[in-house]
Design brief:
By secondary structure, the protein is α/β, with parallel strands linked by helices. The chain is 49% helix and 19% strand. The protein contains five helices and five strands; from the N terminus they run E-H-E-H-E-H-E-H-E-H. It has a five-stranded parallel β-sheet, with helices on both faces. Helix 2 packs parallel to helix 3. The radius of gyration is 14 Å and the shape is globular.
């Protein structure tokens, strides 16, 4: 299973992919929402890391999250944006928000945090003594 990085800016996408790979994550990458949807249907993903404003003129990151999480309920999500007003909206939807520009270490911590939150939710759902 891998982290699916969705970013239309090639430089940011490459930085994100390399940073996550260096941190030990398997990474899939997409330059558009449509490409991400295809990957989410054919590959096992453990987390979605997506930009909010995908410049391809198609859907934005929020619409992409809605579609992918229908197929993968409970999938951890990290939303990225250079526009800080998107942060509260992402958090309100229960998503982790990463403001651009970011330090690579900040991105890795956001991914770890989102995955920990997912593991914590799964543990609580199983209940005490259940494996």
């Amino acid at each position: 299973m891998g982290v699916l990085v969705v970013e239309d800016n090639a430089a940011v996408r490459l930085l994100s992919v390399r940073t996550l790979q260096a941190a030990g994550y398997a990474v899939l990458q997409a330059a558009s929402a449509e490409e991400a949807l295809q990957l989410s249907k054919t590959c096992a993903i453990s987390l979605l890391l997506t930009d909010i404003h995908l410049g391809d003129g198609g859907m934005d990151g929020f619409a992409l999250v809605d579609l992918i999480t229908r197929e993968h309920p409970g999938l951890p999500v990290v939303m990225m944006s250079g526009q800080s007003h998107n942060g509260p909206l992402a958090v309100e939807k229960g998503l982790v928000f990463l403001a651009k520009p970011f330090l690579p270490s900040s991105m890795v911590e956001c991914v770890r945090s989102a995955l920990r939150g997912f593991d914590d939710r799964n543990e609580a759902a199983r209940g005490p003594g259940n494996i």
